[in-house]
Amino acid sequence: MKKRHSHMHRCNFWKQWHEQEDGDSSADAWSTFFHKFMGTMPQQHWVFGGRRFKPWLMGQIDFNPFLAMMFSKGGGFLALYILHLLDRAPHYGNEIMQQIVAQTSGQWMANPGAVYPLLSMLEERGFITGEWEDPDKRTIRRYHITPEGEEELERLKAVIRPRLREAIDVMRDILSDLEDDEDAWD
């Protein structure tokens, strides 16, 4: 059995961050706090310096990079969730992004650079159709799922949901293994 060390690294980083006395939540304050905790600035840390953690460096500390990895365009989950939202009701792009932000409690900000190209690709494949509310102004394009999109949604659910459940179970097991005690991950 590993010997447990009692030092700052065993403490809850996020709990300490939220309880700091001065209440300064700027990007500089967060970087300084991170440096005090980890011994290096976040952008220079071997794990947290990558592009997935860039919002943290800009002070968006509520952003969850692990959710962002799941929702990245190439991961398949974003396409599944967009089709799911459109299966419930027609939406325009900003509404889709707002729905994702709401569903993730603001921990992932939908990126127009990922959402709009994906909507275009889904439309090109015949899974959705888009109609301009005012074809002359072309300001708002509302998307609807097609029958082909409904079929694709069901196929994607059949492939992705079991593996997503499996991933959640594996992550839950890993999280449990990493926990030092009950309140370590508050």
Descriptive notes:
- With about 190 residues, the protein is mainly alpha-helical.
- Among the domains are: about 25-60, no CATH class; about 70-95 and about 110-175, Arc Repressor Mutant, subunit A.
- Helix content is about 50%, strand content about 5%.
- It has helices spanning about 15-20, 25-40, 55, 65-70, 75-90, 95-105, 110-125, 145-180, and strands at about 90, 130, 140-145.
- The radius of gyration is 21 Å and the shape is globular.
- The relative contact order is 0.10.
- Residues about 1-10 have low confidence and may be disordered.
Describe the main β-sheet briefly. 3 strands, antiparallel
Structural class: mainly alpha
Low-confidence stretches: 1-10
End-to-end C-alpha gap: 25 Å
Radius of gyration: 21 Å
Proportion in helices = 40-55%
- Mean pLDDT across all amino acids: 82
Widest sheet: strand order?
1-3-2
**Count of beta strands:** 3
Q: Within the CATH hierarchy, at the fold level, what is the topology of the domain at 72-94 and 112-173?
A: Arc Repressor Mutant, subunit A
What spatial form do the alpha-carbon principal axes imply? globular
Q: Mind telling me the CATH class of the domain at 72-94 and 112-173? A: Mainly Alpha
Brief characterization of the structure:
By secondary structure, the protein is mainly α.
